[in-house]
Amino acid sequence: MNLESPKTNVEKSAEYIFNALTDIKNFEKLMPENIAKFEVIDENCFEFGLKGMPEIKLVKKEATPNSKVVLGAASSKLPFTLTANIDAVSDSSSAVQLFFEGDFNPMMAMMVKGPIGKFIETLSTNMNKL
């Protein structure tokens, strides 16, 4: 299952956005309002929970300076990645787009597609809060 957020223009440099996204604790600023839990485990891992959804632990898997940050599920039960692609528009602005890739069975994919689509859209919209 592949989902993508709309591109969000942010009035910050690509370097600033990259540094903000590689600092795991900043993801709390991006979370939806219905967040029930957010806990930083270490500098590469955090766990969050939204009301009515199971808690998810994300681990930083890859970081390409000023262009890409990849987070992945810490558990192999629901394998997925969340990738932030950062494009420099100018020295002081950038465009960020999120991509979700998950390996789910068709029934699970049908159940989670809506909530995950809304979730990555909210993360993307909240990029301006960094």
* Percent of residues in beta strands: 35-45%
Structure summary, number of beta strands: 8
CATH-defined fold name: Alpha-D-Glucose-1,6-Bisphosphate, Chain A, domain 4
User: Which class do the helix and strand fractions yield?
Assistant: alpha+beta
Give start-end ranges of low-pLDDT stretches.
none
CATH first level: Alpha Beta
Report mean pLDDT, rounded to a whole number: 94
Cα gyration radius (Å): 14 Å
- Biggest sheet architecture: 8 strands, antiparallel
Shape: globular
How many domains in all? 1
Protein name: Carbon monoxide dehydrogenase subunit G
Describe the structure.
By secondary structure, the protein is of the alpha+beta class. The protein has one domain (2-129): START domain (Alpha-D-Glucose-1,6-Bisphosphate, Chain A, domain 4), CATH 3.30.530. Helices cover 25% and strands 43% of the residues. The chain has three helices and eight strands. Strands 1, 2, 3, 4, 5, 6, 7 and 8 form an eight-stranded antiparallel β-sheet that branches. Strand 6 and strand 7 (80-90) form a beta hairpin. The model has no long low-confidence stretch (mean pLDDT 94). It comes from Flavobacterium urocaniciphilum. This is Carbon monoxide dehydrogenase subunit G.
